[in-house]
Amino acid sequence: MTTPAPSKLALVPFVSVENMMRIVNTIGPARMIAEIAGYIEADFLRWDQFDKTPRVASHSKEGVIELMPTSDGETYGFKYVNGHPANMARGFQTVTAFGVLARVDNGYPVLLSEMTILTALRTAATSAVAAKHLAPRDAKTMAMIGNGAQCEFQAIAFREVVGIDTVQLYDVDPEATAKAVRNLAGSGLQVIACDSSEDAVAGAQIVTTCTADKQYATILTDNMVGPGIHINAIGGDCPGKTELHRDILLRSDIFVEYPPQTRIEGEIQQLDEDHPVVELWQVISGNHKGRVSDSQITLFDSVGFATEDFSALRYVRDQLDRTGCYVELDMLADPDDPRDLFGMVRRAKEKS
Amino acid sequence: MTTPAPSKLALVPFVSVENMMRIVNTIGPARMIAEIAGYIEADFLRWDQFDKTPRVASHSKEGVIELMPTSDGETYGFKYVNGHPANMARGFQTVTAFGVLARVDNGYPVLLSEMTILTALRTAATSAVAAKHLAPRDAKTMAMIGNGAQCEFQAIAFREVVGIDTVQLYDVDPEATAKAVRNLAGSGLQVIACDSSEDAVAGAQIVTTCTADKQYATILTDNMVGPGIHINAIGGDCPGKTELHRDILLRSDIFVEYPPQTRIEGEIQQLDEDHPVVELWQVISGNHKGRVSDSQITLFDSVGFATEDFSALRYVRDQLDRTGCYVELDMLADPDDPRDLFGMVRRAKEKS
């Protein structure tokens, strides 16, 4: 049976995984991450315009499902994202995600997009934006502890945005490291597989921790962190999940995305509720100094915030015409007479 | 360019508006509403199993965009829904919606569905479930004040589930009433268009109010409500939006879905915070009496709750095999090795 084509109002552009991969490969991963970093920075600079709220989490013994909404008054966005540490062993992704942008003035969605790949891109872009403002100016070597799905995106982001030329990799599973080494061949980075996290951090000016255990873990111990280092801690992102020893936190100047969320989910859940932290947007906007000395330890305690997803979705929306990588979904009922929803359904039958 | 077909894990069944209309027309609107009512009742009977939270609303001067999540521990669901009273005059729907079900154990979405039509069906089904337990046993006539998009669904639900045989319609806009009269031809209901809300309520045992103004309105005044009536108030559903005069509330026994949400959004926002109300699930489960006398005024102060959307989505999921009315969306990135997201993206380029 056939029905008349739905009105344009009913159609929402949809970016599938396949089309997201086409967008990434058309633009190039490094350039795309750098461009998303630009959108993220631009949105951090207008921080006050955003409705901000901690994500809405539904926890279970296996993991968490979260909704992350925000709005800049003109556009509304949200991401659906799960985090299930045991998924990998069962052949599923630890994190999958999709997101939506909508018009605030009429509530109509204007974009539905896969966000598993896009979250990896925006997380790397956010880390790189923070490091641009916080890492030692001459940082060339980054240690990466945890070589899972996020690893290569981080490496490429730090090369493109921060200017590193070497990554030193370590993972408890050597196969993960071997995978990252393969994938980063030809990236322009010198890639060194290490046998321990101590070896990985040796000589590094930046340390990225990105592991997925849902428990209080200690990926970095205090003696591994020398003066002057920038720590990019992205694996601690839900209650009970941290990566750094508490003593490291006490020696660091701590920068966060949105304190009400980070105090629940980030490394700083190990600290007192009033432990001083600086909001990243304050540094980007010049209201607060980032790195002030060569011996300072800076820590970006990143948990991922809704505005970053908003920035990434905004970026994808702006690539639709440029790349043509989307299809339109008949997702919104749009009767000729808005009050005649019932008649629309009935007429669909008559016309079939 | 082509890429290999995504794995089955990456695919999410999607019910478009067109396919939702096919499902409705295949099953029949009245039967489908009755079946959804069965799902809603079943879920109200296991109320304790659900994670319940007031919806997460983003308000603007034009309207509201809301996310309504819930979970029964096995399945997670949420609805995206907007409410923009000025939309109709601009040719848009006041309310559009879509929703998702996901597995709690691994966080993977298992259904994406339009919910503009489905919300109309579930709202009518919920109203009918409440009336089945609260309306006078011999109710045959329902007044309907407000003849917009929800009107016909309510009428059909009350015929199918409650057993009414007559609807008396009134709307400030006679064209809305005329539309409802046309659409209800052949429904088995006697349909009477009235010139005033007073005429519409005359002789009715049930009064449904369903208007869309975002302001404190008085659709029903105290003198229009006689003893023994059941009021089904579904239009007051956000802060500042009510339909009934406060005096009516004070004369009524009030039944609600989820008090923390209804006190913010429902008619009872006009009352003290501790004004007694009964939760509908308590009545359905027999823990609390519904109608106890012929002179009692019962009021279902309905704002729509996440579990009802969950029930409706659960119903739709169960119709997928039966109707075949869906397509599969490539929405979840699913690399062969879950840690190799980057490699998946890169290989998509090589294969293209």
What's the quick description here?
With 352 residues, chain A is of the alpha/beta class. Chain A is built from eleven helices and 17 strands. In chain A, strand 14, helix 8 and strand 15 form a beta-alpha-beta unit.
Polypeptide structure, described:
2 copies of one chain form a homodimer. By secondary structure, chain A is of the alpha/beta class. Chain A folds into 2 domains: 8-117 and 307-341, ornithine cyclodeaminase, domain 1 (2-Layer Sandwich), CATH 3.30.1780; 132-304, Rossmann fold (3-Layer(aba) Sandwich). The first copy, chain A, has 11 helices and 17 strands. Chain A has helices at 17-27, 29-44, 116-134, 151-162, 174-184, 197-201, 246-251, 259-265, 280-284, 306-323, 341-351; strands at residues 11-15, 56-59, 64-71, 75-83, 97-103, 109-114, 141-145, 166-170, 190-193, 206-209, 216-220, 230-233, 242-244, 252-256, 278-279, 297-301, 327-330. The longest helix of chain A has 19 residues, at 116-134. Chain A is globular and about 75 Å long. Chain A starts with 10 loop residues before the first strand and ends with a helix. The model of chain A has no long low-confidence stretch (mean pLDDT 92).
Task: Give the secondary structure arrangement, pairings included.
Two copies of one chain form a homodimer.
Chain A: E1 11-15, H1 17-27, H2 29-44, E2 56-59, E3 64-71, E4 75-83, E5 97-103, E6 109-114, H3 116-134, E7 141-145, H4 151-162, E8 166-170, H5 174-184, E9 190-193, H6 197-201, E10 206-209, E11 216-220, E12 230-233, E13 242-244, H7 246-251, E14 252-256, H8 259-265, E15 278-279, H9 280-284, E16 297-301, H10 306-323, E17 327-330, H11 341-351
Parallel strand pairs in A: 1-6, 7-8, 7-10, 8-9, 10-12, 11-13, 12-16, 14-15, 14-16
Antiparallel strand pairs in A: 1-17, 2-3, 3-4, 4-5, 5-6
Helix pairs in contact in A: 2-3, 2-4, 2-10, 3-4, 3-10
